[in-house]
Amino acid sequence: MDHNNLVQDMLKECRSLDLLYVEDDLMLSETTKETLSRFFNSVRVCHDGREGLDAYKESNFDVVLTDIMMPKIDGKEMSKAIKEINPAQAIIVMSAHEDAGHLMELIEIGIHKFVTKPANIESLFNALLITAIDINNAKKVAQLSADTKQNLAENEVLLRTIIDAVPVRIFWKDKNSVYLGCNKLFAQDAGYKDVFSIIGKNDFELPWKHEAQDYVDEDKRVIDSGKDKLSYEKQQTLEDGSQIWVNTSK
Question: How far apart are CA 235 and CA 13, in angstroms?
Fold first, then answer.
């Protein structure tokens, strides 16, 4: 990728992300932080694995960038501990050639990307960019899912308001004629104060149990034929034993 395009893409994809950078080389960590701070929303630097793990427990980070060979706790142990806290955490490991023996263990831990040390800026940016794109895509999917759930919840409230407001009895069943829901008027006819009490019941358990078989047979005819049956009169027994005639559509 062209360097200018790489920089522009980094500015676009990383600007909302927070980075934890763990490196025991003080001079390298300061110069790298200065560079990365141009692109990330925030960059926190730690100088050993223990400090990095403590920082991770205190705050949320989108990306963890770490060296392997460090005092107190090395990058491998820190990464393993972080993955136990959050298995989805994106971690990029910078490793020198002499660290190759650790790579298989790091792969098993679930490290996101590897960058060879000493890292040139282009290879580091490429690893960070690919990781940032993955994170942003995952966030978009999560937001879309949350928005969809919110919309469904709002639509359900709207639908419930409508069906409870109309002056007719409304119910719905599964293919076995078991009730999945109804509006308030229908629940009252069945002798219930709330609409949820009818869920899971069938007509044989309700006041009109003497008409139940006829109702169930009628349900089956509509389901099997795929054709609705509109505006016909049916007799129905209420909770108090009285009988009424209802205009029915299925």
Answer: 66
